[in-house]
Amino acid sequence: MTRSSLGLDAPLHEYLLGASLREPDVLRRLREETAAMPYSEMQVAPEQGQFMALLVEIIGARRTIEIGVFTGYSSLWVALALPPDGRMIACDVSEEWTAVARRYWREAGVADKIDLRIAPALETLDGLLAAGEGGRFDFAFIDAKKTEYIDYYERTLELLRPGGVVAVDNVLWSGNVADPAKHDDDTDAIRAFNAKLSGDERVSLSMVPLADGLTLARKR
């Protein structure tokens, strides 16, 4: 047995999916359609989507935020896990990519749960705060512009209730964060974000080696 996280080779990853993934057909078809699109690597792994859906159920989330929608795969996982009166604010800047998301949200019967805001996410978050929405959300997922991660996080933390959870994607960044020779805007931004959260006493924290790295922070 190992005391460190296993690296998943292809056979072990396939076993993991076969033994635990419960991906509805609508999500599978969205994932497969997205896989043939440019920038398909921006889509989260199916086991990550399922993990976030389970987390939403565990904490009893009703009001959620997603920062970075792409084609809507992660938001669909979360929306399906929300109760009938659950709602999501979904932030993105692309009409083209989110048109795919809207199509699948309608097919899955969750379009009425998702309020898509086509605008820079910081503008949307600032608007929610200005409208008095601070402390009223249960769960948030950050997966957008890496150089703005800290800004997204600070605003999201204000919007979450005590006990609310923010999940942050790509925190291992294909391993580049651990390579001292790697220096580009995105890698350095994620390193700075990880360092900030490591010392942030406002939250309880765990970095999970799932897919490209997923940090969970629970607001105290």
Describe the structure.
- This protein is an alpha/beta fold and about 220 residues long.
- It is built from eight helices and seven strands.
- A seven-stranded mixed sheet has the order 3-2-1-4-5-7-6, with helices on both faces.
- Helix 7 (about 150-160) links the parallel strand 4 (about 135-140) and strand 5 (about 160-170).
- Helix 3 (about 45-60) packs parallel to helix 4 (about 75-80) and helix 6 (about 120-130) packs parallel to helix 7 (about 150-160).
- The model has no long low-confidence stretch (mean pLDDT about 95).
Output mean pLDDT: 96
Number of strands: 7
Our estimate of the beta-strand percent is: 15-25%
| Structural class determined from secondary elements | alpha/beta
Shape: globular
Reading the helices and strands in chain order gives: HHHEHEHEHEHEHEE
Helix content: 40-55%
Annotation field: number of helices: 8
Lateral arrangement of strands in the main beta sheet: 3-2-1-4-5-7-6
Radius of gyration: 17 Å
What are the defining features of this structure?
8 helices, 220 residues, 7-stranded mixed beta sheet, alpha/beta
Summarize the helices and strands and which ones pair or pack.
Blueprint (H helix, E strand, L loop, with lengths): L9 H11 L4 H11 L10 H14 L3 E5 L5 H9 L5 E6 L2 H14 L5 E5 L2 H10 L6 E6 L6 H11 E10 L15 H14 L4 E6 L5 E6 L1
Parallel strand pairs: 1-2, 1-4, 2-3, 4-5
Antiparallel strand pairs: 5-7, 6-7
Task: Please outline what is shown here.
With 220 residues, this protein is an alpha/beta fold.
